[in-house]
Amino acid sequence: MAYDLIVVGGGPGGYVCAIRAAQLGMKVACVEKRDTLGGTCLNVGCIPSKALLQSSHLFEMAGHGFSAHGIKVDGLAADLDVMMGRKAKVVDELTKGIAFLFRKNKVDHVHGTARVVSAHEVVVGDRRLQTKAVVIATGSESAPLPGVDVDEERIVTSTGALSLTSVPRKMVVIGAGVIGLELGSVWRRLGAEVTVVEFLDFILPPMDGEVRKIMLRLLQRQGMAFRLGHSVTAAVREGEGVKVTVEPVQGGGAETLAADIVLLAIGRRPHAEGLDALKLDRDPRGFIVVDRRFCTNIPGIHAIGDVIGGAMLAHKAEDEGVAVAEILAGGAGHVNYDVIPSVVYTWPEVGAVGRTEEQLKEAGIAFTVGKFPFSANARAKCNADADGFAKILADARTDRILGAHIVGPQAGDLIAEVSVAMEFGASAEDIARSCHAHPSLAEAVREAALAVAGRAVHA
């Protein structure tokens, strides 16, 4: 069967691209090697981790937060089997939802590993599929670390960390990025002693410096330990545990940390299985090089998502999937990379969009800062959840919003308001002049916008 488009990869970028292309009248097939659609994000990434983050957060609230609300809990215990079962159910329902959307939009789901022969032929098993164009959306995989051999039992990536059968007594997390801190938070809440080892001398690169500092303090207060400015040179299984060798980056003696589980979370690299027959241009890190229309160096072959680098986020890949589908249909697809929000689903959450203070200073852009603490927000006080702040960075001359950074309850949802404002070129004054419901967490965003001009009312 001949197609207008074959999408290789059924993750967020790939399945969204396939659906949008079908909506635009194309005959589309999406090839996915997993038994289920949704890619890493839905099967072993974003979705199952958020399910466990929610369950573990409720468990911690029951044990440490309910009493402040006058709620007494006796005999509290975590049933890990039930938590894992709930996580699996969420994943199952959502993957089946994508399969339904494929049927609804008449997208052919081809199960198997694709081998892209050319821009017009894709081989899956013994099938040869003909097409007018190909979109590569093969995603990414956990980056390796010399001296650390992953077995997904004792030394795990995020995939193994989402499927542990018992709560480890001690866990060492290698990497203080989003994945490491989120999954470290899950197991710390459930009772593990968690130590995070980070090569840099700060956590959460490349977040705003002020965000990094407050999050470090808050996570330490919650019980997470950190070895910043340290490298892991080896992790070796010994019996039922792992011995982790850690050395200061600036020099000094090595030390050994004992762990039941080691989580390797130093980042991700492009996954490009089935592309060996193609001579695609790659950058030094192995990412496929594309132009503004997502074209590779081979006419007719496009690429999107993690495999082309940039912000390795599901929603960024989705936007690219929509854009390339609209371009292939003769339209003008576009992604505004200056307004891609990032969220860390620890507690409190972190939400960020646009540039950081450090980036603006480096670029020599004069800016004004407006900041408002959640400790002065009525809804946050009512919820007994008042850690963090909302911060807006605006151009000193035009007042146009250049970035926003939120640490606090539901920061991942609150950042959407600023993302929309930035997409329309709004000023801080525009948000400040917009009426916000009271009492609401969103008022902190408005107060931060007011603070840009030095006129926050409640602080």
Protein model, in words:
- Helix content is 32%, strand content 25%.
- The mean pLDDT is 97.
- The chain has a five-stranded parallel sheet with strand order 4-3-2-8-19, covered by helices on one side. Strands 10-17-11-12-13 form a five-stranded parallel sheet.
- The protein folds into three domains: 2-142 and 269-335, FAD/NAD(P)-binding domain; 155-266, 3-Layer(bba) Sandwich (FAD/NAD(P)-binding domain); 339-452, FAD/NAD-linked reductase, C-terminal dimerisation domain (Enolase-like, domain 1, 2-Layer Sandwich), CATH 3.30.390.30.
- With 459 residues, it is of the alpha/beta class.
- It is built from 13 helices and 24 strands.
- It has helices at residues 12-23, 39-44, 46-65, 80-105, 158-161, 178-189, 209-222, 314-328, 357-363, 378-382, 411-423, 428-432, 443-452; strands at 2-3, 5-8, 28-32, 108-111, 114-118, 121-124, 127-131, 134-136, 140-142, 155-156, 170-174, 193-198, 225-228, 230-238, 241-248, 255-259, 261-264, 268-270, 301-303, 342-344, 349-354, 367-373, 389-395, 401-408.
- Strand 20 (342-344) and strand 21 (349-354) form a beta hairpin.
Strand element count: 24
Question: In order across it, which strands form the biggest sheet?
Answer: 4-3-2-8-19
Number of helix segments? Answer: 13
CATH class placement of the largest domain: Alpha Beta
Q: Would you identify the CATH H-level superfamily of the largest domain?
A: FAD/NAD(P)-binding domain
* Strand content bin: 25-35%
Q: Write the CATH architecture name of the largest domain.
A: 3-Layer(bba) Sandwich
Helical fraction: 25-40%
* Count of separate structural domains: 3
Low-confidence stretches: none
Major beta-sheet overview: 5 strands, parallel
The gyration radius over C-alpha positions equals 23 Å
